[in-house]
Write a structure and sequence with these properties.
Distance between the termini of chain B: 40 Å
Strand order of the largest sheet of chain A: 1-3-2
CATH superfamily of chain A: Winged helix-like DNA-binding domain superfamily/Winged helix DNA-binding domain
Shape of chain B: elongated
Number of helices of chain B: 9
Order of helices and strands of chain B: HHHHHHEHHEEEEEEH
Number of helices of chain A: 5
Helix content of chain B: 55-70%
Largest interface: A-B, 16 and 21 residues
CATH topology of chain A: Arc Repressor Mutant, subunit A
Distance between the termini of chain A: 24 Å
Number of domains of chain A: 1
Strand content of chain B: 5-15%
Number of strands of chain B: 7
Radius of gyration of chain A: 15 Å
Mean pLDDT of chain B: 75
Oligomer: heterodimer
CATH class of chain A: Mainly Alpha
Radius of gyration of chain B: 26 Å
Strand order of the largest sheet of chain B: 1-2-3-4
Shape of chain A: globular
Helix content of chain A: 55-70%
């Protein structure tokens, strides 16, 4: 996948993933890989700084959990993040419809 | 934490840590990345790799630790800090205005500018606030030039406090008489009452907040960055090709002795035919990363 195409979409992808359930970094990378059938391969150096940046923006929040025997940092979406996801989703739909229209013209 | 004793993992995490500004953030990030590495190792072991192979493969999968560490640098926050700095300047001006108002209307709304003595406290505090503004502006003016760059820098060099311990004493000794005279005359003229203490409080709070924030290492805007073509130091561009040599030294006189000083020598010379030099303070955690850049480009 062209990296330029991925730019600007990673934020919405992470928010969407966390809207399903709270997750930790490694789990997210695996899920992206499985759900996109290998198209979206997130690098660790991309995902973690992005998660920290979304946390600073208060779109997501983190918590440490040790329920499965090891201490692990989980992330979950906030109300602010849910609103942002809706905004980004509608922006993306508008953009993709316009681009599809142009490509099929 | 079961693999933390492995030297390769320790080295990886140390390299990540070196790129993160504060130790507290570094500890949290390290813990999170260690969990990630352990998940990778377990997955590789499940696919029939030995532990040793699994560790090597997991670290290879993680990529360059310095790059990962540096990617946590919050460049957008630095850009936003520009507005905080503008806020400082406005607050400083407000503090001056308040000082003037207190000086003029302090005696129950009557003018007290009857002789030179009554002007001293007002002028002393005016001077205090003015020094804060000018020194603060000097620091910010240089630094804010690169904040509006279109390109993302390769490396932002963190601000390093170069102030010596004795400098704090010198500053304190310089300002102490001014502050003491101000308080002495202010309370002598106005008397100690709830009103006079309350009137003084906001002005002192604002002055102190500005001083603390302008001189705080954490809130300062960095003065040097590395871009594709060279350095930008205090708003001036220095290309890689104009640097003839460089030397490292320990900053023994600085407050934190573990910081470094980098001296860049230019092909250009001064009027005395000496090479032009630039000395910049480098945070101990960034020395190795910057050294890698310099080796590659100079």
């Amino acid at each position: 996948m062209n990296k330029e195409l991925l730019k600007g979409t990673t934020e919405v992808m992470v928010l969407k993933m966390l809207a399903r359930e709270p997750m930790y970094g490694y789990g997210m990378i695996k899920n992206f890989d499985i759900m996109s059938k290998g198209t979206f391969k997130f690098k660790e150096g991309t995902l973690y700084p992005l998660l920290h940046s979304l946390e600073r923006k208060k779109y997501i929040e983190s918590f440490w959990d040790a329920s499965d025997g090891r201490k692990r940092k989980y992330y979950r979406i906030t109300d602010e993040g849910t609103k942002q996801l809706e905004v980004k989703k509608s922006e993306w739909l508008e953009f993709s419809q316009a681009l599809n229209g142009l490509l099929e013209f | 934490m079961m693999y933390l004793k492995d030297k390769r993992i320790q080295s990886f995490l140390t390299h990540v840590e070196q790129q993160i500004f504060t130790e507290h953030s570094a500890d949290l990030i390290k813990e999170e990345l260690l969990d990630h590495i352990e998940c990778l190792i377990e997955d590789y072991k499940e696919s029939d790799l030995s532990e040793d192979e699994a560790i090597s493969k997991a670290l290879l999968q993680m990529g360059d630790p310095r790059e990962i560490g540096y990617s946590f640098t919050d460049y957008d926050a630095m850009k936003k800090r520009k507005y905080t700095m503008i806020g400082f300047k406005i607050s400083s001006l407000l503090a001056i205005v308040m000082t003037l108002l207190i000086g003029i209307f302090s005696s129950s709304g009557q003018m007290v500018i009857e002789d030179v003595t009554s002007m001293i406290p007002m002028m002393a505090n005016f001077l205090n606030v003015w020094i804060i503004i000018t020194t603060g502006s000097m620091i910010m003016g240089y630094s804010m030039k690169f904040i509006d760059l279109d390109t993302t820098p390769y490396l932002i060099l963190w601000p390093v406090k170069e102030r010596f311990k004795w400098e704090y004493w010198a500053i304190a000794l310089f300002f102490l008489p001014i502050v003491v005279i101000f308080f002495f005359i202010y309370f002598y003229e106005e008397g100690i009452s709830t009103f006079t203490i309350t009137a003084l409080w906001p002005m002192l709070t604002i002055s102190y907040s500005i001083w603390a924030l302008v001189f705080s290492e954490k809130f300062r805007i960095p003065k040097c960055i590395v871009v594709n073509e060279g350095f930008i130091i205090k708003g001036r561009f220095i290309s890689w090709t104009s640097i003839s040599s460089y030397t490292w030294s320990k900053d023994f006189l600085a407050k934190n002795q573990e910081h470094y000083k980098l001296t860049l020598k230019s092909f250009q010379t001064t009027n005395n035919q000496q090479p032009l030099k630039r000395v910049i303070g480098i945070h101990k955690r960034q020395q190795a990363h910057l050294q890698a850049f310099l080796r590659e480009r100079v």
